[in-house]
């Protein structure tokens, strides 16, 4: 990679990246916890909601990709040089509102990166390296992520191709080992269904939708790195199905092994279960495998989210060349690292935040804004059709009228509306 | 980004250099010679303080009796025992370091013994520490002792195993198929205590002199289940028991009896406090319902005139059908068992097996009924001991919640009170499916007959007049081996 050319990912890479994001911390922190014994059912319902959401995101991706094809930023001559990711919100909302939305998403992604980092460092700090200072764990983690992201989405995709299948298979095997350990599993713990009524169940469904299924919203800008973005939903749906089933089974295991009260009380119930696995007094103490899985998948998740944050900066600052990005990525890593260390006083506070606040706050970015963006995109398309038949979105510094509307009347043959920044 | 050659070289050197520095070690390195591996631990409550005791593996030098100097001729023991006090359990454990030059590691502590006073005060803090701290493992087995855990750990002399942390889980593991124990780990105890019943059993250990008096028999008439610490099943050592001298490092003649750990029953934990004890008889009464045995021997008297147990019935499989409502609980146990002979002649003499097993089926039914009665008696003993305490160790509340959720919601706040008066109907059906691997008793008396010059006429009852024999028995084929080449006479 020379640092200027476009980077693309394949559908398979998008699939493994999506599995990585879904597995990243959700196999560590259980999804659907408020549903109690019915958490596994909440995960399955949330999975179906997530599948519907992919249709929304796909339409938005299609619209943005079509607009970008009709009017690539910087003109056709720049199209081969610019990074393919980014430029979603300006296309959908126009240059001013689009930048505000991109800034909001930037804050969201950085905060989310910090939460993921916090979870990973907490896990390592609590279980693996309890006497090692947190910065010593945090700095290499962030540094590696920054370096990986600076290589572009293609590098992360290739890493995920290696890491995620192994992590997924290992997760499945660990699950199987827990089920095979004699006397460990009590399926009766799953009864009665809807023990505490429907409200906690719905709370669990909402939490499981926002964490992890709707987290694939981070792939909206990244899906533009596909050679054919119109097929982005397929790998995302498959990722949701396979990971959703794994998560549901993990919920079953956690509750059947620990009991519902303990499954809710433990910060990392999966880890508590893995400590109990003992097959014939030979296969035991396999937490190390589980921790390796979580760290690898968590790293992939972190890089994807930071990539999404980077794409927001690209939109806001109209950065088109990859060589401009490393300082931005480093800054994002620095901020995320600092937030990870200082935003939450304890890991328990972060868990409570995820349960009570994230469930309300995250859907704004996962569902509401993409839905509004889709409507906005359609309206803008309709407005432009009588005049030019297309939109010229994502203008960074177009003419005065374009700056206001975010749309150039020039159409396909018009003057490239972008000022090249070097 | 393209880098110049010197820059690349610099990058490679920096990477290699940092790898060399980082690979040298880390903050969390744990050198084996700097660790004190705790194999078993104890918690006591004494004078308003928690007392933590640790039995640490002796990894260097000559094994000694305890932390204090042991006599060179004292018994070999590969543990170093230390105790420390603290305002909290965690502080007491930390204070163990006042005696140690090595960092204590709790990962291998496979047994946690809780003293009676600590258990009565409440074990919530202990369980919380065991789940909250990464240093502890929730697979740690939990046991109770009457008296102090510290004394138990110090005084217990080990037999085959060298570590108490290996011995105690081993005893429980072997007792599990017998239905008299279960390996109650920290995880399992928390799961049970946090269930709807909020009650759990914990194995109760004690020290007995070696050679020891017979342990409380599971098949004997039920001893009195006690609700408080009592001498029944407690330490049976006398005041002159010299084993304490071992701990003081005094000379101990090899022939002097030692104190060994023995499983003596279970303690009843309600919410987080010890409220009573069950002996082995009542303990199995609970396990018939919660975790049935698959290798338990039930002694029964059989169809003969004797009131004493003459036969052994081996329980191999138990299927449970349990229905619980707010008004009553119905237990139905379908037990599959095989018949064994404890005294070789009895089966045949009772006409259960052999060539003259006339009406054997009725007699088997009779034996099965006796076994069923025995099982019911054990369950009744457990109910009688736990119902006055309101300690639902059977987990009826859990079943009620699963079977009748609305009923449970209605009475959940009064469950302990309701359980105290809950009528429980018990129906045990026993099916004897096998009579062992032989069809008759061993031909030991035939040789005796030969040497005694007994009759050679087939069918002669022979001349064995020893205890347990019955001269009037006419169908004793085992005593008629002469003339059949030493085989029982029904073998052609």
Can you give a write-up of this model?
The complex is a heterodimer of chains A (422) and B (492). Chain A has 422 residues and is an all-alpha fold. Chain A is 67% helix and 1% strand. Chain A is built from 16 helices and two strands. In chain A, strands 1-2 form a two-stranded antiparallel ribbon. The two termini of chain A are 19 Å apart. Chain B has 15 helices and 13 strands. In chain B, strand 8 (258-270) and strand 9 form a beta hairpin. In chain B, helix 9 (280-290) packs across helix 11 (360-386) and helix 12 (396-403) packs across helix 13. The relative contact order of chain B is 0.09. The model of chain B is unreliable at 64-75, 220-256 and 447-492 (pLDDT under 50). The interface between A and B is medium-sized, with 27 and 21 residues.
How far apart are the termini of chain A?
19 Å
Low-confidence segments of chain B: 64-75, 220-256, 447-492
What is the typical, i.e. mean, pLDDT of chain A? 84
Oligomeric category: heterodimer
Number of strands of chain B: 13
Provide the β-strand percentage band of chain B.
Answer: 15-25%
């Amino acid at each position: 990679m020379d640092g200027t050319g476009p980077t693309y990912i394949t559908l398979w890479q998008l699939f493994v990246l999506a599995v990585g994001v879904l597995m990243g911390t959700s196999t560590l922190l259980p999804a659907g916890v408020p549903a109690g014994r019915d958490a596994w059912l909440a995960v399955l319902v949330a999975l179906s909601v997530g599948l519907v959401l992919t249709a929304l995101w796909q339409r938005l991706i299609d619209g943005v990709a079509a607009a970008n094809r009709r009017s690539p930023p910087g003109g056709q001559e720049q199209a081969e040089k610019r990074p393919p990711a980014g430029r979603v919100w300006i296309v959908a909302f126009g240059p001013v509102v689009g930048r505000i939305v991109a800034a909001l998403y930037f804050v969201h992604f950085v905060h989310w990166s910090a939460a993921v980092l916090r979870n990973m460092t907490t896990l390592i700090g609590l279980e693996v390296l309890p006497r090692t200072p947190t910065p010593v764990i945090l700095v290499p983690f962030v540094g590696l992520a920054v370096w990986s992201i600076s290589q572009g989405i293609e590098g992360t995709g290739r890493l995920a191709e290696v890491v995620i299948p192994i992590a997924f298979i290992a997760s499945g095997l660990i699950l199987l080992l827990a089920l095979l350990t004699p006397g460990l599993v009590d399926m009766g713990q799953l009864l009665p269904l809807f023990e505490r009524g429907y409200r906690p169940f719905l709370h669990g469904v909402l939490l499981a939708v926002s964490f992890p299924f709707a987290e694939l919203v981070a792939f909206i800008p990244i899906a533009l790195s596909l050679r054919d973005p119109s097929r982005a939903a397929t790998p995302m749906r498959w990722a949701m199905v396979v990971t959703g089933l794994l998560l549901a089974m993990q919920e079953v295991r956690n509750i059947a092994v620990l009991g519902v009260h303990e499954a809710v009380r433990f910060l990392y119930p999966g880890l508590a279960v893995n400590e109990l696995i003992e097959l014939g007094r030979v296969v035991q103490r396999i937490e190390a495998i589980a921790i390796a899985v979580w760290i690898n998948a968590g790293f992939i998740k972190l890089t994807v989210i930071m990539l999404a944050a980077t794409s927001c900066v690209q939109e806001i600052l109209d950065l088109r060349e990859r060589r401009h990005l490393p300082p931005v990525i480093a800054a994002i890593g620095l901020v995320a690292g600092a937030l990870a260390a200082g935003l939450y006083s304890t890991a328990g506070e972060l868990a409570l935040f995820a349960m009570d606040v994230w469930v309300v706050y995250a859907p704004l970015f996962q569902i509401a804004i993409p839905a509004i963006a889709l409507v906005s995109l359609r309206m803008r398309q309709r407005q432009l059709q009588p005049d030019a038949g297309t939109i010229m979105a994502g203008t960074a510094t177009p003419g005065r009228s374009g700056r206001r509307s975010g749309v150039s009347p020039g159409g396909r043959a018009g003057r490239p509306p972008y000022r090249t920044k070097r | 980004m393209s880098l110049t050659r010197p820059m690349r070289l610099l990058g490679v050197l920096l990477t290699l250099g940092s790898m060399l520095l980082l690979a040298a070690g880390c903050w969390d390195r744990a050198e084996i010679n700097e660790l004190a591996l705790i194999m078993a631990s104890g918690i006591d409550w004494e004078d308003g303080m928690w007392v933590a005791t640790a039995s640490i593996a002796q990894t260097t030098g000559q094994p000694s009796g305890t932390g204090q100097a042991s006599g060179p001729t004292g018994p070999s023991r590969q543990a170093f025992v230390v105790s420390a006090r603290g305002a909290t359990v965690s502080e007491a454990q930390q204070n163990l370091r006042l005696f140690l030059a090595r960092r204590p590691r709790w990962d291998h502590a496979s047994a946690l013994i809780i003293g009676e006073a600590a258990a009565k005060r409440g074990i919530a803090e202990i369980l919380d520490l065991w789940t909250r701290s990464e240093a502890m493992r929730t697979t740690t087995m939990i046991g109770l002792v009457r008296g102090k855990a510290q004394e138990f750990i110090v005084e217990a002399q080990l037999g085959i195993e060298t570590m108490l942390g290996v011995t105690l889980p081993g005893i429980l593991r072997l007792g599990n198929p017998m239905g008299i124990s279960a390996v109650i780990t920290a995880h399992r105890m928390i799961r049970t205590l946090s269930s709807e019943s909020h009650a759990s059993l914990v194995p109760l250990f004690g020290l007995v002199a070696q050679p020891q008096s017979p342990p409380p028999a599971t098949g004997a008439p039920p001893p009195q289940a006690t609700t408080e610490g009592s001498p029944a099943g407690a330490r049976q050592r006398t005041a002159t028991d010299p084993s304490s001298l071992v701990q003081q490092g005094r000379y101990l003649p090899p022939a002097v009896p030692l104190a060994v750990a023995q499983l003596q029953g279970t303690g009843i934990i309600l919410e987080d406090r010890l409220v009573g004890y069950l002996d082995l008889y009542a303990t199995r009464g609970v396990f018939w319902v919660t975790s049935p045995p698959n290798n338990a021997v039930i002694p029964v008297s059989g169809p003969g005139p004797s009131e004493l147990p003459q036969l052994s019935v081996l329980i191999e499989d138990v299927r449970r059908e349990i229905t619980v409502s707010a008004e009553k609980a119905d237990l139905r146990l379908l037990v599959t068992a095989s018949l064994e002979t404890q005294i070789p002649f009895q089966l045949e003499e009772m006409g259960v097996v052999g060539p003259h097993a006339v009406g054997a089926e009725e007699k088997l039914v009779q034996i099965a009924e006796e076994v069923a009665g025995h099982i019911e008696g054990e369950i009744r003993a457990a109910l009688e001991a736990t119902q006055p305490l309101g300690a639902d160790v059977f987990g009826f509340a859990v079943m009620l919640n699963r079977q009748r959720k609305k009923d449970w919601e209605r009475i959940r706040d009064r469950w302990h009170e309701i359980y105290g008066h809950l009528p429980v109907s018990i129906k045990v059906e026993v099916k004897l499916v096998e009579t062992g691997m032989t069809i008759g008793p061993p031909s030991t008396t035939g040789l005796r007959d030969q040497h005694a010059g007994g009759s050679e006429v087939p069918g002669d009852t022979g001349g064995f007049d020893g205890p347990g024999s019955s001269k009037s028995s006419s169908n004793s084929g085992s005593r008629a081996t002469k003339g059949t080449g030493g085989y029982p006479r029904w073998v052609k």
